Design the sequence.
């Protein structure tokens, strides 16, 4: 603004230049810039600088429009033609506009060189190693261990931070994304090179940076500005929301001093001249008002940092990976498993949302309470949400009406079948813990609680015969009150008898229910009774009887009006049928494999199974079982599966132990001894974990025996003492076959399969 009055002081000149810059960056179109521009305009008007402010706006708008014309020339006519056009334009322009357009041209040339370099090295697949997610992502903030000193680094990607950009989808690179990197003091990150910026680096450099972060003890969190919970209107408001959200998720110990340092990248377009000194005080006050006891010891400081900060590049790499449209970045994002876990999508139901909901200080609705009871089971014991639920419990235990309000939610879900057992159990556990004095859960709800507890113990391979007896007693007293619920409970506890190898224990009760009218148990339960009876026969190696009951179950499931439920139940029962057929000698193997894979292209199915995760773990287990059972017919499919070893996923629940054991066997068949040893050792260690129960410990001993027979190297050998211990815990365990097998010196492939059938019957192997 070449003709500014000399009486204008230095601060006014800075404000006028800032106003010019905001309009040269597009303040007329971008709400973030416009909001700051309006504040500057008001300040300048208060000082009487009306004409000067108007001139700055006009020049800035002119510079923005000319930069768009320059962009059109560059993209349409090329660099030389654009330079000629620019030379003519600049002759009559003000000094500020000349500087802006020249800078735009230089940035464009740098950007083109970067694009050219990337294209010359273009790759579509990231080298980042895939992250395996079980209950939570390794970089989940709320699952980090405690620390007294935290550093939070904040960056963004995208162009638009106005929440109401309805034309932008979640996949748009222009959509604003806010990201936080949360580093405890115990984690010391390697300093990055000065000026580390993901957009200027090779894809491999960003891969290495992100992979390094994913393997560190730190947290990552972010959201998009079109998230329903992000009721903020501009970039800075979203940054503040992100900070609040992160602070609530931090594992903080009450009565302990905790320091939190927040580092926000200084963005010339947004924060160059703003002060954030008051932000820390604001956040401290909010937290203490929310829960003084928890946050009394927190001390917060907030700072602006430059792009050259030694650690800023790390959060920049995450933000870039999330926002970049390149195939390489998308593959890196997929392999990082951050999206949907640490980086939230707008339509995603995630536990992190409860932090903001709980922070509103309102009494939890019964629906939110029910969901929260399950969510906190996966939270750190010092989590803010755990504390919210504990405080609610203490208050509810003093108010019978409130307690009954939450119990009514469980009643309604049981009545409408709108639940899963784990969720019901978590809610009932809470109600039992915080029941008002003189009150306890009615037996009909205690039955759900006890059978679910039994199911959870079964899932870990534990055998609790006392709880089984308690469940049977409750069922006998409650059949008249709610026959369908009692029948459902019987079906659940039947698994417990199988886990203790007492396969005939509940067979008479199942038979009695099958002799009753279908209307008493309900059609779905009646079909499941047949499926359960089929499993009992399968465990007893009574193949034809098992197949007969499975086929009857499939017939009754077909009669259900809820076809989605019917298909789900049929898929489970049919997997049992296929498992039994696999142990039969009277099948056409090619036809059976076609049915198992739902295709005649076994090779492609092998690849699909090899790269699948937890959702398809039972399908993968069955396919591996088939590859082992029919080695000559599935050689090509076996080799296709093994070639995907770099994409194999693992888990900690059943049947991942069996999957790893079968993988070891397949690798041994191909001479991959070291890899086979690694897989078998994982299977054994997973099953032998002391937190498990005797059925999984027995499975580990069987795998040790199989490893010995296959000559796979493992750390611990089969042990007579271990088998004696397990027989004491599981008197009905089939020990004799394993003992005889160990006395032999030579084994062929079928010998080992047979010992699996006898030592781990039906779907235990």
Sequence:
């Amino acid at each position: 603004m070449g003709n500014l009055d000399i009486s204008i002081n230095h601060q006014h000149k800075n404000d006028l230049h800032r106003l010019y810059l905001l309009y040269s960056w597009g303040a007329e179109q971008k709400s973030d810039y416009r909001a700051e521009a309006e504040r500057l305009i008001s300040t300048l008007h208060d000082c009487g600088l009306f004409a000067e402010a108007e001139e700055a706006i006009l020049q800035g708008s002119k510079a923005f429009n000319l930069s768009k014309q320059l962009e059109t020339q560059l993209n349409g006519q090329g660099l030389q033609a654009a330079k000629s056009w620019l030379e003519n334009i600049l002759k009559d322009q003000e000094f500020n506009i000349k500087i802006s357009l020249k800078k735009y041209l230089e940035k464009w040339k740098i950007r083109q060189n970067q694009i050219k370099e990337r294209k010359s090295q273009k790759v579509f697949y990231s080298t980042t190693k895939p992250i395996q997610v079980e209950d939570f992502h390794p970089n989940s903030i709320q699952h980090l261990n405690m620390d007294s000193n935290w550093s939070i680094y904040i960056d963004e990607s995208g162009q638009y931070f106005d929440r109401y950009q309805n034309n932008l989808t979640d996949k748009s690179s222009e959509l604003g994304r806010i990201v936080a990197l949360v580093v405890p003091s115990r984690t010391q990150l390697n300093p990055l090179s000065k000026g580390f910026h993901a957009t200027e680096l090779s894809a491999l450099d960003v891969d290495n940076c992100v992979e390094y972060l994913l393997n560190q003890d730190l947290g990552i969190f972010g959201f998009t500005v079109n998230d329903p919970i992000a009721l903020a209107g501009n970039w800075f408001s979203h940054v503040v929301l992100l900070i609040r959200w992160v602070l609530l998720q931090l594992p903080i110990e009450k009565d302990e001093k905790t320091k939190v340092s927040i580092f926000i990248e200084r963005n010339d377009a947004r924060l160059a001249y703003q002060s954030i000194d008051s932000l820390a005080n604001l956040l401290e006050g909010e937290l203490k008002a929310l829960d003084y006891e928890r946050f009394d010891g927190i001390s917060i400081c907030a700072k602006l940092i430059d792009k050259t900060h030694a650690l800023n590049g790390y959060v920049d790499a995450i933000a870039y990976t999330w926002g970049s449209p390149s195939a390489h970045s998308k593959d890196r994002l997929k392999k990082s498993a951050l999206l949907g876990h640490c980086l939230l999508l707008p339509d995603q139901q995630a536990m992190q949302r409860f932090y903001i909901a709980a922070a509103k200080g309102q009494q939890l609705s019964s629906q939110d309470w029910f969901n929260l009871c399950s969510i906190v089971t996966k939270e750190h014991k010092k989590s803010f949400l755990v504390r919210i639920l504990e405080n609610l419990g203490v208050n509810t235990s003093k108010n019978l009406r409130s307690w009954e309000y939450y119990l009514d939610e469980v009643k309604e879900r049981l009545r409408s079948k709108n639940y899963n057992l784990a969720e019901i159990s978590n809610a009932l556990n809470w109600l039992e813990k915080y029941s008002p004095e003189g009150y306890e859960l009615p037996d009909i709800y205690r039955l759900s609680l006890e059978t679910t507890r039994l199911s959870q113990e079964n899932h870990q391979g534990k055998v609790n015969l006392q709880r089984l007896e308690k469940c049977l007693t409750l069922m006998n007293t409650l059949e008249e009150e709610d026959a369908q619920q009692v029948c459902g409970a019987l079906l659940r506890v039947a698994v417990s008898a199988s886990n203790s190898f007492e396969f005939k224990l509940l067979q008479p009760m199942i038979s009695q229910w099958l002799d009753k009218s279908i209307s008493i148990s309900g059609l779905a339960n009646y079909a499941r009774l047949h499926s359960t009876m089929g499993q009992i026969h399968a465990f007893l190696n009574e193949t034809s009887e098992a197949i007969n009951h499975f086929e009857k179950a499939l017939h009754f499931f077909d009669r259900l009006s809820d076809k989605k439920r019917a298909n789900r139940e049929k898929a489970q029962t049919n997997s049992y049928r296929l498992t039994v057929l696999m142990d039969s000698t009277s099948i056409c193997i090619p036809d059976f494999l076609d049915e198992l894979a739902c295709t005649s292209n076994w090779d492609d199915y092998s690849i699909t199974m090899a790269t699948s995760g937890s959702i398809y773990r039972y399908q993968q287990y069955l396919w591996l079982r088939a590859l082992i059972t029919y080695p000559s017919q599935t050689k090509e499919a076996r080799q296709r599966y093994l070639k995907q070893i770099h994409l194999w996923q693992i888990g900690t629940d059943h049947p991942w132990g069996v999957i790893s054991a079968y993988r070891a066997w397949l690798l041994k068949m191909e001479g991959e001894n070291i890899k086979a040893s690694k897989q078998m050792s994982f299977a054994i260690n997973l099953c032998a974990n002391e937190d498990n129960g005797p059925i999984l410990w027995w499975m580990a001993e069987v795998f040790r025996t199989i490893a010995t027979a296959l000559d796979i190297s493992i750390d611990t050998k089969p042990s007579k003492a271990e088998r004696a211990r397990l027989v004491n815990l599981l008197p009905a365990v089939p020990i004799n076959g394993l003992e005889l097998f160990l006395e032999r010196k030579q084994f062929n492939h079928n010998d080992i399969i047979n010992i699996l059938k006898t030592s781990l019957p039906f779907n235990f192997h």
